Amino acid sequence: MRNQPVLPSADQQQRLDGIRVRLLDSDDLARCYQLLDQHHYLGSLKPVGERLHYAVTDAHGHWLGVLVFCAAARRLRPRDQWIGWSDEQRRRRLPLVVNNARFLLLPDQTFPNLASKTLHLVLARLSDDWLARYAHPVLVVETFVDPEQFCGTLYTASGWQELGPTDGCGRHARDYYVRHDRPKRLFCRELFPNARRSLQAEHLRPALAAVEAKAPPRPTQTARQWRSLIEHFQAVPDYRARIGFYPLYSLLAVVAAAHLADAPRGQKDLAAFAARLSQRQRRTLGFRKDRHSGRYPAPSQPTFCRLYAQVDARAVEAAVLEFQRQLRGPPPPEDLIVLDGKQPRHTGGQRVLTAVTVPSQHYLGSAMVAGKTNEIPVARELFPRLELDGRVVSLDALHTQADTARALVLEHGADYLLTVKANQAAVKENIERRVDPPPAAFPP
Asked: What are phi and psi of 428, to 5 degrees?
């Protein structure tokens, strides 16, 4: 015979109708943790990352229990398969998933349907509360149930999905897990329809995109992908007489990794980027192990300052060009060569003149533009480093100079495509008088 559900009495139903959940502030946390220590089988906890605490109260404000939500587990195979996101999406979007780390109803205050009513009220407001506190909503909530203690009936009845057992590891620090060999049952629930579809989408909605913007960049290439580039960097001569933990090719590999991850590349930024690399990534990039600690240390800001000041920039460029040639082959001979000056985000205001092919976007070389000069002499100094014979070279209006055109044709065997604007009135007038205008369909 099936067990009949236990219904609340009339008095209990009246109390149930008056149930409220309240978001706790810092003044209430001591009481929250005290109750957890006294009554929860796991005791209190030290929440990791973003977190919210709730108290469930009756109509008179008396506490009946507490709930704690905090950062989700970094890796859960059943959850990640259920969501359907990639490893990189998980890394950047994990703040959109939260963990119900504690749910306590005081033993002398509980009655039928209190737990399900409490959970319903909290989940109805959880995402809005997270948005108000941390400037982003949450889409999915997870929790773990100890099968030796509970059956998980509450979560199943409340629309959560059981996804399978965990691996039997517990978090002991932000990124540190210890195996306890007591797998838990994993339950998850979407807080909104199609929440999982949002988490696995190629691009997040604008309301969620701020979460990805906060994720620190990191390299995603495999060890095999790095080996060839590192071999080319090994050809760059080291400026140091004594090499410690970081061979020159390792430091250059960090700069390349930061570039590929679109991370800031100032000296301080590179030190922070290197510090976020895992031990395996540091070993892959060629760091040397500290014999005393047995770990691979990360280079400091002064190390990158010395790198930028003393490395042979032309040798680095040669290594990059050779790597590009190995990876992509030579630039197509029919491509246009374009020289253009830019002020990249990571140069502290300095300008760089760069030569690339269009449309294939092969990198050909670059040169810094000193503060007391402009791009015109820098471009003429860059020409001999490029293979221009028989090619067409394009530059903007700043370079529409007779000496620049003469150098391209007579010294380097190239043709030119220069821009003429109104600041060169006589040249513009001659062109308009002697050259037929292009058809209307000519692209700008």
From this structure: -65, -40
Edge-to-edge strands, sheet with 140-145: 20-23, 52-57, 63-71, 97-105, 140-145, 185-190, 161-165
pLDDT at 172: 46
161 contacts 187 by C-beta, under 8 angstroms: yes
pLDDT tens digits for range 350-391: 789 999 999 999 999 999 888 767 899 999 999 999 999 999
CATH fit for domain 333-434, picks 3.10.490.10, 1.10.730.10, 3.40.50.720, 3.30.420.10:
3.30.420.10
**263 vs 134: CA distance, rounded Å:** 23
CA-to-CA distance for 97 and 79, rounded, in angstroms?
Answer: 10
Q: Is 135 helix (H, G, I), strand (E, B) or coil?
A: coil
pLDDT surpasses 60 at 442: no
E strands, 135-175, in order: 140-145, 161-165, 169-173
How far apart, in whole angstroms, are the C-alpha atoms of residue 304 and residue 251? 8
Query: Cα dihedral sign for 346, 352, 354, 358?
Result: positive
Quick count: other Cβ atoms within 10 Å of Cβ 324? 16
Q: Give exposure, 138-170, as e/b (b: 16+ Cβ within 10 Å).
A: bbbbbbbbeeeeeebebbeeeebeebeebeebe
Pair type for strands 392-395 and 336-342: parallel
